[in-house]
Amino acid sequence: MGDQTFSFEKNVETALGDTQLRANFEYAMSTLYQKRKAVFADEAETERLREVGNAVRQRALSKLPELLEKLEKKCIENGIQVHWAETTDEANRIILKIMDDHRATRMVKGKSMVSEEMHLNKFLEEHGKEVMETDLGEYIIQLAGETPSHIIVPAVHKNKDQIAKLFHEKIPGAPYTEKVEELNALARKTLREKFQHADIGLSGVNMAVAETGTLCLVENEGNGRMCTTVPPVHVAVMGLEKVVEKLSDVPPVLRLLTGSATGQIITTYFNMITTPRKPGEKDGPEEVHLVILDNGRSAILKDPELRQTLQCIRCGTCLNHCPVYTRIGGHAYGFVYPGPIGKILTPQMEGLEKTGGIISASSLCNACEEVCPVKIPIPELIRRLRNESYDSKGSVPGHGYKWNLPEVLVWKAWALVNRYPRLNELAMKVGGLFGDRFPKIGPLKQWTRVRTTPRLARHSLHELVKTEGVDHE
Amino acid sequence: MDKRYPDKPDTVYFFGTCLVDAVYPEAGMAAIRLLQREGVRVVFPQNQSCCGQPAYNSGFPDEARAVARQQLDTFTRDYPIVVPSGSCAGMMKRHYPMLFARDRDLSRIRAFSNRIFELTEFLVHVLKVKLEDRGDPIQVTWHSSCHAAREMGVTEDSKNLVRQLKNVTLTELEKERECCGFGGTFAVKQPAISAAMVTDKIADIRGTGAGRVLSGDCGCLMNITGAMERGKVGIQGQHIAQFLWERTNG
Amino acid sequence: MSNTARERIFAKLRPAVAAGQFDIPSPELPPRPEWTPSEKVQKLKTLMEAVRSEVHVVKADAWTDALKALARQRGFKTLLHGPGTQVGDAVKQAWSEGSGGLPALRTYEGAIENYKDTLFHDTDVGITSTLGGIAESGALILWPDAEEPRLMSLIPPIHIAVLDADKIYATFSEAMERMSWSEKMPTNALLISGPSKTADIEMTLAFGVHGPKELIVFILEP
Ligand code: SF4
Fold it and tell me: B156 CA to middle of ligand 1, Å?
């Protein structure tokens, strides 16, 4: 992940060549697409809701330091211990220390993209801890030794047969079965054991409410509730942008999140945690810790345009609607966050020089922007990052890495030709010298991989209007 | 999407777009003829060039601005500006105000953007055309460019024009709102993904059984017809203006 | 270490926000639906059934009879209840009036640390009260407490929830406002819309992956 050998182009070729993979994605994505459409059938109402979602998130970002302080204060009052981590390494060490302080060796984990960002499992395992993913999708890919290919449905790249084989090979004593019900039952049995005996539970946070110091978790399976209720210690990790101001901000965001993510009016469980177990209560963790991670987010906040990236509520619907993601899948992007949100987030976190390739993988079709529940103008931000890639005076890490004279000159020449009508006319004439087809060099070589060369018209419209007697001042 | 349409004007500007100019001029002429037939004077300023989108999308906003300004300085009178492309219209209507957000002239640019209309929406809502079909029966399908659909919201207008033609059967694509993989420089910077997309689009087109695919955008047309030709798929692609003109001017 | 990390983070956040250029719209929420009490019951029932909850609308004075009939019919073996709550006490009372063929009543003995084995391996059904319901989302509101701990609605394979029809709110926002949640958030507040489920394998919906396999709701009408 994120290593030096990352080649987006190579990943793309591999992904596109894998017909099984493409079929798996195609099927899953069109299912999610249809389900979202059904739950947001009323367009006018959905639009209103998206406006509210956008406003809630923008308002939160506009007061971020204030809200984070308030969240911290409230949490401490409520008995939740708050930790701050500037880097993923710091966050990992905080969690390791909490484990060591409790002599904890067995962790059960709910789904958390931030923990993926931290590569927490690898870190803890290197320190001798057992880490168990318990979301079914995460469990599947953990067994397979893979990473999530989607931020909501992490094992979506695998089909039933592949999972059947995996379970049979990796779960001791598991019979081979392709029945989904039976596969689920196998996971249930194995993981219930883990829930019962874990000494620490970890979860992400879908939103944290500054007003009350409440951590909100959205899920369908119940594993999140297990992880946050059964073990004696609960650690929640969140990116620092996940805070909302008021409790009244929660319902609209929740509605948008579940509708966008899985096409549900609401998930099976919405879990709001405000304090550890109180005296007299019989269950729930005795300690709750909240780890708040920066990892580059604070730097994103300073740019009025790019900070919109931080509005994201990780619903994943931009992935499901993206014609590029649905064809190449999540792994091709090479980093934790794939698809449209990954395209705008990853380069800002990891630096353009390392990840810039993915920014060119957008036809700017606007499908993501159209569905994003918090109205992030993703195509606009992609354009901005493309610009940053060439701009030596930019502000995103790695800016200007792509600057090269030939390409810059091409655009300068293009601008020149299109600014001076005489030059334009001349260029068309020069173009005409090649006959009715453009020469097959440079970009055209790529174009003609699957297409014929475009034919230049003998007479341009500029010329035709003159001969056809159109007013042409 | 806020949409306001003016009363039928005496005169309109025509912005041909660079692709129509160089590759599909007959589509441009057909569009002009359609407008003229409704009794409107069409003015085609010779100083026009490109909307600036190629540079804008590729990360060169300064160059895009320079070229955009050429259009701002060319289409100066208060006529509506008709554009035979949803994508270029979207650029000029939706993106110019962003591109020039910090410009002293922003209000003038907004006014310019408000004068931009995509061809088919203009035919439907401003000129309220009634088309009389003179062609033989034919089955066609419609490909909407992403920007025609999502920035201009004109897909229904375009299809409604086709539906006015009594001998034409319109069979819609299964995934009408999915991109064909053109995306300007995307097609050459990510050729493999673009190829996968256009291949799927062609399969969808073939699935309709139509003999012709119509579109209001020449970028998509160049992409789709180029790939169909190369793949020896016997389906024609045509710009809607040319199709409408041919069917009604027989 | 975390203290200095905190300072470093805030040192970046403060100027970023102070630089401003926020232009925050303040749109209104879509209007709250106005449903009659019976429409709310119907809406909740329909939505919950759509995610495979089993919903029984019964008269308030007859609900324990209905529960007993159901328990006999399904052959439940053990029923975890919370004495001290209205629901728990009603169950206890009903069982005391004759418990032939009924599941053995259990209570949550002591803290989870000592009760895990029974809870995980020897409890069929947990029955809890609810704080209310949300018609628009088809969800129950639970505020677990000392009498009805959090895991009662999670570990047993079957969860039975009892809801007063007059505590169904139109929306989540309305429920929060009417009950002034922001002033008194409990240890844990839950919305529950159905049995545990997943679609992580080939988008195929399957129930009871970690939590309860069944959710049975009694809506009590006056
Ligand atoms: S960018 Fe928008 S659509 Fe994509 S994951 Fe984030 S909130 Fe969802």
Answer: 28
Question: Which DSSP string do the residues of A394-456 spell out, in sequence order?
Answer: --STTTTTT--HHHHHHHHHHHHHHH-HHHHHHHHHHHHHTTTB----THHHHHTTTSPPPBP
Whether ligand 1 lies within 6 angstroms of the CB of A317 is answered as: yes
Q: Are residues A372 and A453 in the same domain?
A: no
Asked whether residue A44 is assigned to any structural domain, the reply reads no
CB B82 within 8 Å of CB B98: no
Sheet holding B116-118, edge to edge: B41-43, B11-14, B81-83, B116-118
Ligand 1 mean position to C23 CA, how many Å?
20
Which chains form contacts with chain B, at 3 or more CB pairs under 8 Å? Answer: A
pLDDT number for residue A440: 58
Ligand 1 close to Cβ of residue A318 (< 6 A): yes
User: Mind listing the pLDDT tens digit for each residue in C86-140?
Assistant: 999 999 999 999 889 999 999 999 999 999 999 999 999 999 999 999 999 999 9
Distance CA B56, CA B49 (A): 15
Q: What is the ipTM of this complex?
A: 0.96
- Residue A376 CB–ligand 1 contact under 6 Å: yes
- Give the total residue count for chain A: 473
Could you give the 3-state DSSP secondary structure of residue A37? helix
Which residue of A lies nearest to C32 if distances are taken between CA atoms?
A45
- The matching CATH number, chosen from 3.40.309.10, 3.40.50.10420, 3.40.50.970, 1.10.287.90, for C33-196+210-221 is 3.40.50.10420
Are C149 and A284 inside 8 Å of each other by CB? yes
A434 has pLDDT over 60: no
**Boundary residue ending a domain (A236, A270, A295):** A295
Contact between B70 and A370 using a beta-carbon 8 Å cutoff: no
Chain B residues whose beta carbon lies within 8 Å of the beta carbon of residue A329: none
Overall pTM > 0.80 = yes
Q: Which of A85, A86, A272 is nearest to C176 (CA)?
A: A272
* Tokens encoding A60: 């939160």
Residue A427 belongs to a domain: yes
Closest ligand 1 atom number to CA of residue A261: 8
Mean pLDDT, residues A125-130? 98
pLDDT digits (tens, 9 = 90+) for B35-50: 999 999 999 999 999 9
- The span from the CA of B53 to the CA of B145, in Å, is 14
Pairing of strands C214-221, C206-207: unpaired
CATH number of residue A352's parent domain: 1.10.1060
| pLDDT, averaged across chain A | 93
State how beta strands C188-192 and C139-142 pair. Answer: antiparallel
User: pLDDT tens-digit profile of B200-236?
Assistant: 999 999 999 999 999 999 999 999 999 999 999 999 9
Residue identified by tokens 């529960």 is C67
* Residue C105 exposure: Cα atoms within 13 Å on the Cβ side: 17
Give A301-324 pLDDT, tens digit per residue.
999 999 999 999 999 999 999 999
Task: Compute the distance between CA of residue B245 and CA of residue B214 in angstroms, rounded to an integer.
Answer: 13
* Strand segments (E) across chain C: 54-59, 78-81, 104-107, 125-129, 132-134, 139-142, 158-164, 168-169, 188-192, 197-198, 206-207, 214-221
C9, two tokens: 């983070």
- Structural domain that includes position A109: 64-295
* CA-wise closest residue to C192 among C211, C205, C166, C169: C211
pLDDT of residue A431: 64
Q: In the numeric block, which tokens belong to residue B84?
A: 């035979």
Closest chain A residue to the Cα of B27, Cα to Cα: A461
Q: How many CB atoms lie under 10 A from the CB of residue A77?
A: 11
Look at chain A and report how many structural domains it folds into.
3
Contacts of A328 in chain B (CB under 8 A): 193
- Give me A343's structure tokens: 């395209």
Q: Which CATH class is domain B138-248?
A: alpha beta
